[in-house]
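for the writeup, i need someone to sanity check this before i put it in the appendix. the sequnce is what the collaborator sent (i think, or maybe the updated version? ugh). structure was predicted straight from it, no edits. if anything looks off just tell me and ill rerun, i have time this weekend
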Amino acid sequence: MSTRSSPRASSARSTNMTINPLTALADWPRRQLALMTFSTTALLRGSQELRRIQQESAERATQHHEEVAERLREPCDYSDLIALQAELARFNLQEAAHYWNQLANAAFKWQADIVSSAGEAMIEGASEPTLESLQRAFEATLNGATAAAAATTH
């Protein structure tokens, strides 16, 4: 006689384990840690992206202003001075719009990553997360980020 169980029997056992409240309660710390870890990962990726945008913007601005400063070392007439000033104003406005656009896009992507990763952690094994669970996960992520920020400033 074989001691091997049928696939159907093992499926029934795994279903009973996931429905069992004690198993779910015992699994809660792992799920909570997974949520915090996924959220932290998304938070750090977003932070890296914001830093990258800031760095690239600062490099472009530094290069352009160094070029203008180099041109101002030599004597120029008043019309050239006005043209340089207008070019700096145009460049600064254009770069500011580009910078804020990039930051907004990164923030939207960041938010989507946080909600997505939190939804995956909270709804493990479900086909589609519910709106309510995503909202709870997002609020938990924001509360955790606020608490972490407060802890680092004190």
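The longest helix spans residues 21-72. Confidence is low (pLDDT under 50) at residues 1-17.
thx in advance!!
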